[in-house]
Amino acid sequence: MSSSTHKPASFSFSYSLGGTPPAAAAVPTPGPNLHNAPTQIDAGDRMVDVLMSMRSPRIVLFGNLLSAEECQALIETAQPRMQRSETIATAAGGHSYEINPQRTSDGTKFKREETPLVARIEAHIARLVQWPQAHAEGLQIMYYRPGAEYKPHYDYFDPALPGTSTLTRNGGQRVASLVMYLQHSATGGGTTFPDIQLEVAPRQGSAVFFSYERPHPSTRTLHAGAPVISGDKWIATKWFREREYSAT
Q1: How many CB atoms lie within 10 A of CB 50?
Q2: What is the domain-level CATH number for residue 22?
Q3: What global pTM score does this model have?
Q4: Which of 76, 80, 165, 198 is the most buried (most CB within 10 A)?
Q5: Rg of the chain (C-alpha set)
Q6: Nearest to 215 by CA among 193, 197, 190, 241
Q7: Domain containing residue 69
Q8: Is the residue at 246 inside a domain?
Q9: Is residue 40 part of a domain?
Q10: What is the total count of domains within the chain?
Q11: What DSSP line would sit under 18-69, residue for residue?
Q12: Which pLDDT does position 162 carry in this prediction?
């Protein structure tokens, strides 16, 4: 099977179904404190609901992570900046951007702490998943119109591709993802995990978190954005790195 690499949106990366590399050693990952099975977690400026948690793979569904006002403000700030989603084509020593046929959406990215709203959201996310803000990429905002989707892919960088060492030089591998739902479509548009037959409905203000301790399919973090059937779908995604990531 041939390898291919996909970028969730402009200026960010992921990789799709490809050859299976040898499993690397596990590394520490972000994650909420779920000791004693709490129904809520203190995220600093709010209590976030824990709606569902799974240990293997590690997936946690949060409720009330964002308010309706925060969701709308992110959408309004992002709208003038939206571009067609791209993919990253890697080669030894570098990479380039191309239109991504696997993800038929529009997107943009905020720098870390670019606005007071973004800074506030990033602060409570860092507390929620117990991971430094500096060890994460900036918020990525995505818009899916009816018919748009993102086919099954992994968010970590494919170790088998020659350009991956360039991508991981700054911050190391991705080790976790958080997908926040800003506006849910009338039908369709769920986040699916094909390996475990799970689908998360895109409900406004909620979010799905999942971590991957190694860049390998054994983590069972293959996921997809199901096609939007009607209405609009807006999401914000946060990717977490092993080490401090210098956003550019």
Answers
A1: 16
A2: 2.60.120.620
A3: 0.86
A4: 198
A5: 17
A6: 241
A7: 5-241
A8: no
A9: yes
A10: 1
A11: ---PPPPPP--------TT--SEEE-SSSEEEEEEEETTTTEEEEESSS-HH
A12: 87
